[in-house]
Amino acid sequence: MRVKRVSALLSGMLALALGVSSIGAQSQDPVLIGIGVAQTSNVALLGQEQVIGAQIAEAYFNERGGINGRPIRLVFQDTAGDEAGAINAFQQLIAAGVVGIVGPTLSQQAFAADPLANEAGVPVIAPSNTARGIPQIGEFIARVSAPVAVVAPNAVRAALNINPDIQNVAVFYAQNDAFATSETGTFQETVRELGLNLIEPVQTFQTTDTDFSSQIATALASNPQLVIVSGLAADGGNLVKQLREFGYTGLIVGGNGLNTANIFPVCQALCDGIIIAQAYSYALDTEVNNTFREIYKEAQGKEPPQFSGQAFAAVQSFVEALIAIDNEVGLDSLSLPELRAALNAQLRSMTFDTPLGPISYTEEGEIVQEQFYVAQIQMEEDGLNGSFVFIPIGDEAEEAEPQATPSS
Ligand code: 1QQ
């Protein structure tokens, strides 16, 4: 760091001495990366973890010299939880001159806001949009969040591994959310493919619902041994709580919308046992993940969750692609529209060694990722603290089983 700063200073002085005004100063201006995720509303239960992951990446990469000595600066715009909020945040970020955007939190928001960035030629990396069809929104849209079709089936396999006698499966999903609708399609397909009995009718709710008693009564009448929930954190956590209060004792698989310790205050001790597929494991033993994990734990007092790991990986992708462009042609040789276009192309032409493992993006912007996991929530007696404990998936369960560290 010190060496870099000194050499930057020297080159600035040299530029002045040579009468080359502003080049030195310009090349030290931070490169702006937009972060448009949910910092307010119920969706902030998911978005908060993304803010933390992105902030860790900002500090991590700036400490390592940023873009060849030029720092990055994250520009945050709160999307809140709906489409209008995401559209507004994306407009602000585009106008602020960011080179690319990490966001939004929900697929439901991405389908509304991503077309704006695409039309403006601003590359987007979706940090947590897992619904079918996200990269296909446009040529400037990529995602670091593996799709439900790849991730979700693992949770059902893991449930069967715990209880091979599962026959009847009840499925619930939030029908006003694009991700939940997409994820339930994958879950229902998986249930059928595994030869299990999908209880009909499938139960629907709204992400704004708080009372699920009529759906629960209908589903439990068919005697399920597994219940699968696709919703968001507040509604999903509440549904799990009410399932247990109704006396359901079988296994529960939660989708990606429940994939956060922020559901603990919602279902408390009754969160215990929820099985959730993961695209990240804090136990991945690589230099970048170990460092990320250490910084996260130091600040948060618990193991890093998937949404933080994915947000870190999204910022990392932009940073390392920018370094490659700088090495090749120099960032200052490009106008902002040129840089955005070059960044979009560069993202799709390299591999990134991230906390998620090595990843790349297809030409279409879909993530290519090697490893997936399943975790089960283990609540402590107090009902306040808990942890995500990694469990075997089943057939291909030869992978590492990291130990959980209790978290608060
Ligand atoms: C999506 C999701 C969310 C539940 C993650 C925050 O996977 O909307 O696609």
Question: Secondary-structure blueprint of this entry?
Answer:
Blueprint: H1 2-17, H2 23-28, E1 31-37, H3 44-63, E2 72-78, H4 83-95, E3 100-102, H5 107-120, E4 124-126, E5 141-143, H6 148-151, H7 153-162, E6 168-174, H8 178-193, E7 197-198, E8 203-205, H9 213-220, E9 226-230, H10 233-245, E10 251-254, H11 264-267, E11 275-278, H12 287-300, H13 306-328, H14 336-347, E12 352-354, E13 357-361, E14 367-369, E15 373-379, E16 386-391
Parallel strand pairs: 1-2, 1-3, 3-4, 4-5, 6-7, 6-8, 6-9, 9-10
Antiparallel strand pairs: 11-15, 12-13, 13-14, 15-16
Helix pairs in contact: 3-13, 4-5, 13-14
The protein binds (3S)-3-methyl-2-oxopentanoic acid.
The tally of strands reads: 16
Q: Tell me the number of helical segments per DSSP (H or I, 4 or more residues long).
A: 14
**Overall pLDDT:** 92
Main sheet specs? 5 strands, parallel
Q: How widely separated are the two ends?
A: 34 Å
Quick recap:
By secondary structure, the chain is α/β, with parallel strands linked by helices. It has helices at 2-17, 23-28, 44-63, 83-95, 107-120, 148-151, 153-162, 178-193, 213-220, 233-245, 264-267, 287-300, 306-328, 336-347; strands at residues 31-37, 72-78, 100-102, 124-126, 141-143, 168-174, 197-198, 203-205, 226-230, 251-254, 275-278, 352-354, 357-361, 367-369, 373-379, 386-391.
Please tell me about this protein's structure:
The chain is of the alpha/beta class and 408 residues long. It is built from 14 helices and 16 strands. The strands form four sheets. A five-stranded parallel β-sheet has the order 2-1-3-4-5. Strands 6, 7, 8, 9 and 10 form a five-stranded parallel β-sheet that branches. Strands 11-15-16 form a three-stranded antiparallel β-sheet. α8 (178-193) links the parallel β6 (168-174) and β7 (197-198). The longest helix has 23 residues, at 306-328. It starts with a helix and ends in a 17-residue tail after the last strand. Mean pLDDT is 92; it is low at 1-25 and 397-408. The chain binds (3S)-3-methyl-2-oxopentanoic acid (1QQ). (3S)-3-methyl-2-oxopentanoic acid is lined by residues 46, 105-107, 128-131, 179, 232, 256-257. The site of (3S)-3-methyl-2-oxopentanoic acid has 12 residues, from loops.
